[in-house]
């Protein structure tokens, strides 16, 4: 079965072709237009999706070496995301499905982030736990099978990616700051400064306090020495990153203890963080977990993860009608 998948939930336009469960192409066009605003501007994102979508689908088909007529089903991201962005992908996918008389498959973006772990050969067996850490979400998911996914913990306020980006902003780094914090942290001491870790019940997270704690700390220090940030940037990045990773790993350990599941994956944009990747591998060695991290191109937003999810939905006969609509937020099905 050959599936064409489209992802347009935020500011990346992406298309992928999946042939019998193997990702044959995964092409992503990033939108540069948002950089100057220090964040994603929804209206500009939808306009850029409209410009990008035809050429992006073209490239994905060419790279996979197949034509539109050879496609058996069309998949798209239904939710969650920016509604204007989602609408462009959904409308395009529906038009193609109608024109080609092929079935349509609607995919939940956060389920797809988790199933990105099934793309490569070295994949986790079921059941597995997945810590999904992205720009908008922080979740611990228990996966019993490809389509039986349960959120067993999540953030009550900011996402881990936001904690990275907001701290980076306080440190004077441009948006999105996560990757820059990672880079600077590699040259710094993670134990140089201490930031309070929140005490949140169950398997849930909170990151809004960290941002405030970093803000007050920097304000006090800058009062004494106006070059404090400049002179301590690497240590500050390393310490903020260390705190975020500790918060994440503590709950992951708790989730393993509660469920007895020792196959542990991470997913989402923040799983590109080198500190988190190392910490997960070390935890794996220390506690006897089998750990899995998707290749970088399947961590951040990409249509490959939508395609692999659609492949499992296709096999289970889970198709959508042409009147299906995208939604900014949605429960898991
Ligand atoms: P969602 O999936 O929740 O809707 P999103 O798709 O916008 O959100 P992703 O693209 O998965 O989010 O991830 C983007 C986030 O990942 C940003 O906050 C970014 O700063 C962060 N990020 C990317 N690389 C790194 C890194 N190396 N270290 C830390 N954070 C990173
Ligand atoms: Fe995402």
UniProtKB/TrEMBL annotation:
Quote the InterPro entries the UniProt record gives.
Answer: ATPase_NBD, Gcp-like_dom, KAE1/TsaD, TsaD
Cofactor(s) this protein cannot do without: Fe(2+)
Q: Which residues cross the membrane?
A: none
- UniProt cross-references to Gene3D superfamilies, sorted A to Z: 3.30.420.40
- Entry keyword set: Acyltransferase, Cytoplasm, Iron, Metal-binding, Transferase, tRNA processing
Q: Which residues make up the binding site for substrate?
A: 132-136, 165, 178, 182, 273
| Binding note for cofactor | Binds 1 Fe(2+) ion per subunit.
| EC main group | transferase
- Name the positions where Fe cation binds: 109, 113, 301
The catalytic activity of this protein is classed by the Enzyme Commission as 2.3.1.234
Q: Where in or outside the cell?
A: Cytoplasm
Describe the location of the Gcp-like domain by residue ranges: 23-307
Against Pfam families, the record matches this protein to: TsaD
- Looking at the record's lineage, which domain of life comes first? Bacteria
* UniProt-listed PANTHER family: TRNA N6-ADENOSINE THREONYLCARBAMOYLTRANSFERASE, TRNA N6-ADENOSINE THREONYLCARBAMOYLTRANSFERASE, MITOCHONDRIAL
General function of this protein: Required for the formation of a threonylcarbamoyl group on adenosine at position 37 (t(6)A37) in tRNAs that read codons beginning with adenine. Is involved in the transfer of the threonylcarbamoyl moiety of threonylcarbamoyl-AMP (TC-AMP) to the N6 group of A37, together with TsaE and TsaB. TsaD likely plays a direct catalytic role in this reaction.
Q: Report the sequence similarity comment from the record.
A: Belongs to the KAE1 / TsaD family.
Name used for this protein in its record = tRNA N6-adenosine threonylcarbamoyltransferase
Which species is listed as the source? Danxiaibacter flavus
Lineage per the UniProt record:
Bacteria, Pseudomonadati, Bacteroidota, Chitinophagia, Chitinophagales
């Amino acid at each position: 079965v050959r599936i064409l998948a489209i992802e347009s939930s935020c500011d990346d336009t992406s298309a992928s072709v999946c042939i019998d469960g193997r990702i044959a192409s995964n092409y992503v066009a990033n939108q540069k237009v948002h950089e100057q605003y220090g964040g994603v501007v929804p209206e500009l994102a939808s306009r850029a999706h409209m410009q990008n979508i035809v050429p992006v689908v073209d490239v994905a088909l060419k790279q996979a070496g197949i034509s539109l007529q050879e496609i058996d089903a069309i998949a798209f991201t239904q939710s969650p995301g920016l509604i204007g962005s989602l609408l462009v992908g959904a409308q395009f996918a529906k038009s193609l499905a109608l024109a080609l008389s092929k079935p349509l498959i609607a995919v939940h973006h956060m389920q797809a982030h988790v199933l990105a772990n099934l793309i490569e050969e070295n994949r986790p067996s079921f059941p597995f736990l997945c810590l999904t850490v992205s720009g908008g979400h922080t979740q611990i998911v228990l996966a019993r099978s490809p389509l039986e996914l349960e959120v067993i913990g999540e953030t009550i306020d900011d996402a881990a990616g936001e904690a990275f980006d907001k701290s980076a902003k306080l440190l004077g780094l441009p948006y999105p700051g996560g990757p820059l914090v990672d880079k600077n942290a590699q040259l710094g001491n993670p134990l140089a400064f201490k930031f309070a870790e929140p005490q949140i019940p169950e398997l849930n997270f909170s990151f809004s306090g960290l941002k405030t704690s970093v803000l007050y700390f920097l304000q006090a220090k800058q009062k004494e020495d106006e070059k404090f940030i400049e002179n301590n940037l690497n240590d500050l990045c390393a310490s903020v990153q260390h705190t975020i990773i500790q918060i994440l790993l503590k709950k992951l350990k708790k989730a393993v203890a509660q469920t007895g599941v020792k196959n542990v994956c991470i997913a989402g944009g923040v799983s590109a963080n080198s500190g988190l990747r190392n910490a997960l591998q070390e935890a794996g060695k220390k506690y006897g977990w089998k750990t899995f991290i998707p290749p970088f191109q399947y961590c951040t937003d990409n249509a490959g993860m939508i395609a692999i999810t659609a492949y499992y939905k296709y096999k289970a006969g889970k198709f959508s009608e042409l009147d299906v609509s995208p939604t900014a937020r949605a429960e898991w099905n």
